[in-house]
Write a structure and sequence with these properties.
The structure is a homodimer. Chain A is an alpha+beta fold. In chain A, about 20% of the residues lie in helices and about 25% in strands. In chain A, strands 1, 2, 3, 4, 5, 10 and 11 form a seven-stranded antiparallel β-sheet that branches. Chain A has a four-stranded antiparallel β-sheet with strand order 6-7-9-8. Chains A, B: This is Hydro-lyase.
Chain lengths: ~270, ~270
Amino acid sequence: MTNLASQRLPSAPSELRRLIRRGCWAGPTAGLARGYVQANLVILPADWAYDFLLFCVRNPKPCPLLEVTELGSPIPAQTAPGADLRTDLPRYRVYQDGQLIDEPTEITGWWRDDLVAFLLGCSFTFEDALAEAGIPLRHWECGCNVPMYRTALACVPAGRLHGPLVVSMRPIPARQVARAIEISARYPLAHGAPVWIGDPAGLGIADLDRPDWGDPVPINEGELPVFWACGVTPQAVALAARPPLMITHAPGHMFVTDWPVSRVERE
Amino acid sequence: MTNLASQRLPSAPSELRRLIRRGCWAGPTAGLARGYVQANLVILPADWAYDFLLFCVRNPKPCPLLEVTELGSPIPAQTAPGADLRTDLPRYRVYQDGQLIDEPTEITGWWRDDLVAFLLGCSFTFEDALAEAGIPLRHWECGCNVPMYRTALACVPAGRLHGPLVVSMRPIPARQVARAIEISARYPLAHGAPVWIGDPAGLGIADLDRPDWGDPVPINEGELPVFWACGVTPQAVALAARPPLMITHAPGHMFVTDWPVSRVERE
């Protein structure tokens, strides 16, 4: 993927976050700080934190937990102790009672002592690894978002949280499917191995050309659609339960951690 | 390991649990229902469940989560949907404010609607695998408990819960240490690979002959002490925080799940 920004922005996570904090970069983070783990962010009030944590534990493929902050702390002590989750992402989404009400570039004014932040692994990690192995990524080629679909598979519920598994789809040439599985399986904290290969009807997906999130991509002759558990799952499930306040990253505008990708590669 | 009981008691988990429920077996479960995953049990009030769950997530080696029941439910829906955690373990320990007050064979009278049960993976799973690979287990040979030690390594704290890592020690012949590591690494839900090999001083252990729990075992010429994260860790940490009520299995008297060991073997 060629990304103009990646040529101009610092490649060290801490320097990139400093620029973001100062308001110098409010764009997506794909292709930035290559080689470092990026993360989905979900912030919830303490009253909802147990259900959400349990949902993640019970559904590790869509919800791979990288870190949970201490109650009231916006500091990710394990993945980036020098960072502040209120200011160090390029863009956020703020939801009240399940409704999107704002898309700010920092959330200092929203922070409260009863909030907990969850950082979840993100597909960028395994996509970089797939690309390095010469496996084509159609949505990169098309310059669009990966297509995502609600499935007929139910997640394991937890307290007030329940809902379907959301998957992302990447068309892979038949001869490279096995390799794509092997490679992604090495990153359990980035959704791991696919959950389904081939016929989308088996997942209850009626039409690949009409994704529920992201953009449709063409599937060429000799390619199979390959489906991975998607980090949109926990967000969709949590929003459906309408918590009074929930803050997430804006799509594609992830948190860049200090962890090199090798740190989340399976032993 | 020869175990008289294993010759007389049923080998199917559900049948063994039925006998235990009827009060016909109140002994340890080592060697029973071979080939099935056994689990540590920790029951806490809802007010403590978030801290404990987060502690487990942050310290997966000593606290490998197999299952967390829904609030108020004693049914392990995932690992043994036909079981009841109030009656299906041979013996329990009941603690109030951190003090042991009872060791009953069932806890129906203690159960409350605000309790949550945690099932954590247990070393029996990888010990069976080590034994099958021809690796000697000294505490089996001696017919005693595995020696366990408090270390100078701090666990990652979570809320009110903090404390040292507890490890178990098994002396392994030098030429088999690598194999023992490979085999146990395949079972991340049973503490996984060792945390330390060799000199106990590096863990802050002063004297291997004086374990903090269990029994001392001799280390023969040509053997190295090998240390694994131990499931006593979460119990010790939780008790130190003195929750008003906490119920666990009695040492060695584990919960026998329906899961074959292959289910928790790493892909």
